[in-house]
């Protein structure tokens, strides 16, 4: 039981993610999370503004059920299957984050400066979350996939477009963390 | 019945995302600093099994649970959309520290602020739909 309550090592998590992809493939579907953003836009009637969203979203209902499950799984993981929420990141990462002003590094699951309930009244934190979300949604649909659709599903199928997208993910991430973070935080 | 299967697959995925800490902002930051093998181990081992499994499915012409042939569609050809979109996504992934799967996991875990990230992501997807024809693909 302790093994379950501890954070799971990569060699357990990685194969389980592959299993999720294969279960969806054997259900006749595919593993891709960001298409749900498009589906939710369509549910909200975005088809009136752009033909990109004019499709029968009911055909993607299965994927909305998957993300509903992902939320329930998040609840279970955090509240039933964990004893603490500290993420044991590398000591040098903690130092770098402390230098940027993130005091909760190594002590929490998410940085309190951005994600705590009190940060909800901080315009700076709200702007970071909103801009982060905008880039995620815009980029994932522009690239026609995110980490699940390209880095796992696409690369598993040896797709060159997915390799290009994943290289893009890393260029963006490295630029953000190394060049922009020191300016933002 | 199938709906229940999707729900359980999703629950399993959510638990894995939370418990592996792939849904943690800190792990994403650490990954982009190459300070730990953790995230590379997760993606790498998933990918290794993924490549082997997809090859097997194709070579053995396996069928779905429902007896239909498995079709794994190739990605559309392209370059600019994958690179530019990828870079934009990467900027957001590092800033908000969550990709589109873990967003839901974190909502379930009780982080209310992630709803702002989700709202931003929906708006971003909507903006892409509006601007799509003006963007290089």
UniProtKB/TrEMBL annotation, chain A:
Sequence intervals crossing the membrane: 12-28, 62-81, 124-143, 163-184
Its record classes its membrane topology as: Multi-pass membrane protein
Q: Where in the cell is it found?
A: Cell inner membrane
Give a GO cellular-component term: plasma membrane
Q: Kindly give the InterPro entries that the UniProt entry links to this protein.
A: Sulf_transp_TsuA/YedE
- Domain of life according to the entry: Bacteria
UniProt keywords (A-Z) are: Cell inner membrane, Cell membrane, Membrane, Transmembrane, Transmembrane helix, Transport
Under Pfam families, the record lists:
Sulf_transp
Write out the similarity annotation: Belongs to the TsuA/YedE (TC 9.B.102) family.
Q: Any idea what this protein is called?
A: Uncharacterized protein
Species in which this protein is naturally found: Salinimicrobium catena
List the lineage, top down. Answer: Bacteria, Pseudomonadati, Bacteroidota, Flavobacteriia, Flavobacteriales
UniProtKB/TrEMBL annotation, chain B:
Which InterPro entries has this protein been placed in? DUF6691
Q: Which UniProt keywords apply?
A: Membrane, Transmembrane, Transmembrane helix
Keyword Membrane in annotation: yes
Q: Which domain of life is it from?
A: Bacteria
Pfam families annotated for this entry?
DUF6691
Give TM regions: 38-57, 78-96, 108-131
| Name under which the protein is recorded | Uncharacterized protein
